[in-house]
């Protein structure tokens, strides 16, 4: 009965580590996506925020370690190698500690992160140009255009943020950011307009921002709504991963102790 139980534990631990290997590949891919993505709000964050850049490399590192850990766990479980199971236990414990540390740091720095993002977006809006002066500036502008068009928002707090734009303020025409323009359901949602557009049916030669055919709501509220809607899912996933990791620690200890006692029982007694 004991041998059968250990056999079940061994193969259950193998399947567990196979899933962990796949999870590591997903985490690694997510980190690479943050670094490589140039067409969404993530690009705005990772280009301007050193914190997100560091976080992306942390994801890549954790993903690689998780894949290595899953491989060690699979080999150690099938072949009952105590050394590999020990390394697996240490790696898993370190990852669990790292996850808890990152969660605590994120919780206590959430307000600071929100302030940094707001300042960063306002800087992009104020310095937005029809012809960007550098490739980095062009990437940021394209990413912000993509956000406004896809999320259907304008500015950060509201569309009035665009009245602080230098090019718009110096213009003698009534122009507005093209990516903020309201679109109908029949319009192609994948086409993102760039630069500034002129108000076609202006009531006078004077500049009235109220005549802009743009979304009045700022992107800050949209982002906060998205975070609130997905926070429960994110929390549930984190708790689920932590429980699975604790289960992996328990199973590896059980199998390691069984291998130790089995090896001891095989030693000839005189």
Form type: elongated
Weakly predicted, low-confidence segments: 263-270
- Average pLDDT, all residues: 77
> Largest beta sheet, briefly?
2 strands, antiparallel
How large is the share of residues in beta strands?
under 5%
Placed side by side, the strands forming the largest sheet appear as 1-2
Element order, helices and strands? HHHHHHHEEH
The helix count comes to 8
Total number of beta strands: 2
Helix content: 55-70%
What is the number of independent domains? 2
> What is the multimeric organization of the chains shown?
single chain
Question: How many angstroms separate the termini?
Answer: 29 Å
Structural class: mainly alpha
What is the CA-based Rg, rounded?
A: 27 Å
Keywords: Cell membrane, Disulfide bond, Glycoprotein, Lipoprotein, Membrane, Palmitate, Transmembrane, Transmembrane helix
Disulfide bonds: 154-178
InterPro entries: Tetraspanin/Peripherin, Tetraspanin_animals, Tetraspanin_CS, Tetraspanin_EC2_sf
Protein name: Tetraspanin
Describe the protein in words.
It is found in: Cell membrane; Membrane. The chain crosses the membrane at residues 12-36, 56-78, 85-108, 231-256. It is a multi-pass membrane protein. This is Tetraspanin. InterPro entries: Tetraspanin/Peripherin, Tetraspanin_animals, Tetraspanin_CS, Tetraspanin_EC2_sf. The structure is a single chain. The protein contains 8 helices and 2 strands, in the order αααααααββα. α1 runs antiparallel to α3 (50-79) and α1 packs antiparallel against α8. It has 2 domains: 2-110 and 231-265, no CATH class; 114-219, no CATH class. It is 69% helix and 2% strand. It has helices at 2-36, 41-48, 50-79, 82-108, 110-126, 135-151, 166-169, 219-265; strands spanning 175-177, 196-198. Strands 1-2 form a two-stranded antiparallel sheet. With 270 residues, it is an all-alpha fold.
């Amino acid at each position: 009965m004991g041998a059968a139980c250990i056999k079940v534990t061994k193969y259950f631990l193998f399947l567990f580590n196979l899933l962990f290997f796949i999870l590591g590949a997903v985490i690694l891919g997510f980190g690479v996506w943050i670094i490589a993505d140039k067409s969404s709000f993530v690009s705005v964050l990772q280009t301007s925020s050193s914190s997100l850049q560091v976080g992306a490399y942390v994801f890549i590192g954790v993903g690689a370690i998780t894949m290595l850990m899953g491989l060690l766990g699979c080999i150690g479980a099938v072949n009952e190698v105590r050394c590999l199971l020990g390394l697996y236990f240490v790696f898993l414990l370190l990852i669990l500690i790292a996850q808890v540390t990152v969660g605590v740091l994120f919780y206590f720095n959430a307000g600071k992160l929100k302030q940094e993002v707001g300042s960063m977006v306002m800087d992009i809006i104020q310095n937005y140009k029809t012809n960007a002066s550098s490739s980095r500036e062009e990437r940021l502008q394209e990413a912000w255009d993509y956000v406004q068009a896809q999320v259907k928002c304008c500015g950060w707090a509201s569309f009035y943020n665009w009245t602080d734009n230098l090019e718009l303020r110096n213009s003698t025409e009534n122009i507005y950011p093209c990516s903020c323009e309201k679109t109908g359901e029949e319009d192609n949602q994948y086409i993102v307009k760039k630069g500034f557009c002129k108000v076609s049916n202006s009531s006078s030669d004077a500049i009235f921002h109220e005549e802009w055919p743009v979304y009045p709501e700022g992107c800050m509220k949209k982002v906060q709504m998205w975070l609130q809607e997905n926070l429960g899912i994110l929390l549930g996933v984190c708790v689920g991963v932590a429980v699975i990791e604790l289960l992996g620690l328990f199973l590896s200890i059980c199998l390691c102790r069984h291998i130790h006692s089995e090896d001891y029982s095989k030693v000839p007694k005189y």
